[in-house]
Amino acid sequence: xxxxxxxxxxxxxxxxxxxxxxxxxxxxxxxxxxxxxxxxxxxxxxxxxxxxxxxxxxxxxxxxxxxxxxxxxxxxxxxxxxxxxxxxxxxxxxxxxxxxxxxxxxxxxxxxxxxxxxxxxxxxxxxxxxxxxxxxxxxxxxxxxxxxxxxxxxxxxxxxxxxxxxxxxxxxxxxxxxxxxxxxxxxxxxxxxxxxxxxxxxxxxxxxxxxxxxxxxxxxxxxxxxxxxxxxxxxxxxxxxxxxxxxxxxxxxxxxxxxxxxxxxxxxxxxxxxxxxxxxxxxxxxxxxxxxxxxxxxxxxxxxxxxxxxxxxxxxxxxxxxxxxxxxxxxxxxxxxxxxxxxxxxxxxxxxx
Length: 353
Prior knowledge:
Layout: E1 2-4, H1 6-19, H2 24-39, H3 50-58, E2 69-73, E3 77-81, H4 87-105, E4 107-115, H5 123-130, E5 133-141, E6 162-169, E7 172-180, H6 186-195, E8 204-205, E9 211-212, H7 215-218, E10 225-226, H8 232-247, E11 264-272, H9 282-294, H10 310-322, E12 324-326, H11 328-341, H12 345-349
Parallel strand pairs: 3-4
Antiparallel strand pairs: 1-12, 2-3, 4-11, 5-6, 5-11, 6-7, 8-9, 8-10
Helix pairs in contact: 1-2
């Protein structure tokens, strides 16, 4: 395992994307969000994704320097198209549109389709919460990310289908929920594969329906499947995510006919909390509830009760101070990409602490 300097790593990743044709601002945004994922402890959505993104551009699955197109808009509803652009840019643009609409009208829904991989979905409720707003987000993949078996089934029928939400907390970091509706996100499976470690039981099956824990057995021909978390409960949430992120956006629910490129759909609901009546006592009730939950007696082995998002904040502080750990396999793939694209070796090596 190597330890990397977050700032130097951002510079390195930015140069990778500039070399494949991204304008400086786009490359900076991609690098920012990928490294941010590593800082929060979500390595599955961090710089491990960079070589995959580069391949998507080379194969015209993702297109550089794209912007949102607004397909339909009312005062509080927008349907937008990402034009196959990088999700780190398209997602940010979609959230800014939703924030601007919610400021004017108190509430907004943004239905995004045809975005390349949106990265760590927790970034989007965080952005909204930083604007003082609450939000809920459903995400799917139109067919390229067909990975998950339905409850009681063996064959791939669903995407990983993240669900995320954010609630601002007055004077403090927001509550941020960011979960996949499957037992393990495929990105985390790739991290485990690169590290050469097994995953917890109940996360994956092989193509014959046998329970497995070795990621290498998932990446076979025919491939294995991911399982929904919590059995029928995670499966039910996954179906709802498909309905909102696939059907309501026009992105398409997971469909094997759409396996040409990885496209995310995201349905976002945004509420301007400053527009709520003062007598509602929203901010005070949020804090009262947090304090009440945290006052519970600690179970054996637990020193603290955390709210959603607090573990990511702890990870960020630690990794900003001590560096980002990365496995040798992931680092080698990044070095190979740098060499292929002609990035200065000194830039690459400066990332290592």
